[in-house]
Each structure stands twice: as structure tokens, then as C-alpha cells.
Amino acid sequence: MSQTTSFLxxxxxVGIGSGTTVVFAAAHLGQxxxxxxxxxxxxxxxxxxxxxxRNNGLVLSTLDETPMLDVTVDGADECDKxxxxxxxxxxxxxxxxxxxxxxxKMVVAADYSKCSDKLGTKWTNGLxxxxxxxxxxxxxxxxxxxxxxEAALRLAVKKMVCFHFRFDYHSMEMLKKGxxxxxxxxxxxxxKFPMENDFDWDSMSIRLKMIPGSxxxxxxxxxxxxxxxxxxxxxxxxxxxxxxxxxxxxxxxNTDGTVSVREF
Length: 264
Prior knowledge:
It catalyses: aldehydo-D-ribose 5-phosphate = D-ribulose 5-phosphate. This is ribose-5-phosphate isomerase. One of its GO terms (biological process) is pentose-phosphate shunt, non-oxidative branch. Its EC number is 5.3.1.6. Belongs to the ribose 5-phosphate isomerase family. By secondary structure, the chain is an alpha/beta fold. It has one domain: Rossmann fold. The protein has 6 helices and 16 strands. The strands form 4 sheets. The protein has a 7-stranded mixed beta sheet with strand order 3-2-1-4-7-15-16, sandwiched between helices. It has a 4-stranded antiparallel beta sheet with strand order 9-12-8-13, with helices on one face. α1 runs parallel beside α2. The longest helix is centred in the first third of the chain and has 17 residues.
């Protein structure tokens, strides 16, 4: 993890992402900042990242307070040889992309299983796409019609809950019914794109976000804003889990303790 903290100076602003590998990166960052007596202002991408910042003695900040970050350290669900990444398995893709965009550079810290030559090879759960709840159905249909593959609404997963009752421990499987809701109050689609297609991922991210809401109320709302002089793109897609032209360097931890580095 020492490679991910080589940017430390007298005062530095860092975006902190989510994921198992970032836990170690944040801990190492906190330790190095303390040893070097460096002020590290950190902007989180999720509640988990916020707790990482606090637990490691780093300074919690926001993009309002720190509008331009020196670097963002984040994980990835998959990273190809051009450093295009799929993110959003944890559902925080919009915040993660915003923080990454307002950084001078983005660094990925992940394990070897996330490193691939082609997106979709290692990460097979589909590309996460954040959509407005009002139009997730039409958007899902449009994605499949235009680009092929399969798309599904992400639903809550089963969890095993343990409890104590009558002097004994019991466990039961509980399921929160309904779709997963992001921190922004939106739904998530997971698109399993056709692997036989050689997509231009940068272009694909833009095309996905051009898909309109396909709902009368959504269209009326957008038209009303346009009449008031606002420029509005009536897209039902909020953001995609495609991170293109953002990552400058990726570090992959191997099973033997070594680190592989990719730059593009």
C-alpha cells in the first residue's frame, strides 16, 4: 500500500472510495500522515468511506470545502488494460464518479482478481447503471433493445440474522423486499452486456446516459424546466458504472505479496 501514499505532501486533499482494498489503503494513509505530520483532508464517496476516514484519524471534508482533490484512491470491480473500470457493485457509483472527476488524478487499489484484458471477463454481475425510480422499466427495456444482452433491477439480498431468545441463540434468513435504493434515492440496473461486441466504453457511457426517461410525467417536468430557461437532458439514466479516462494508475495486489502496476 506504500505506492498509494507516495503523493503525501505538507497538506493534501484525497478522495476516499469504497471496497475491501481501500480499507487497507486508508489505514496506511492514516499511519503515514501521522508519521509525517501531514494534514490530509479526505472526501468520502460513501458512508463506509466516511467511517474509514474517521477511524484512521484523517480529516473529514466535503467537495464544498475542498472543491479540487489532489488524488482519489478507490477500488474497482474490474479494470481492463486501458484502465477502463467497472464500478458500482456496492451501489455508490455516482458519488464515486463525482469525487473522481473533481480530482487531479484517480488511483485504483485492488486485488489481482479485478485485473483483466477485457471488461466483463472477471466481473460477470453486469454493468451497474443508476436510474430514476419513475422510469426504471422503460430504461431497462431500451438498453436491451439498443445494445443487446440482459438487464435486471437489483434487488435486496438475503441476510442471516442472529438473535438471542429463551437462553439460546437462533438464526433466521431475512430479506428486505424490493429494489436496492442508492444514497441518492435511485434504483440500480445491472446490465449483462454481450461479450461478443467490442464496445467503445467511453462512447457507450455517453450513449447510455442519453436514454430518455420514457415516462409522461418525467417528460412534462423536463419541458417545464426548459420553458424557464434551463438546459435539461431528459435522461432516466443518472450515471453508469463505467469509469473511462479517469484512472491514471492501478495497483493490483498478488497472492505472493507483490504488486502489479498498470499505467495508460
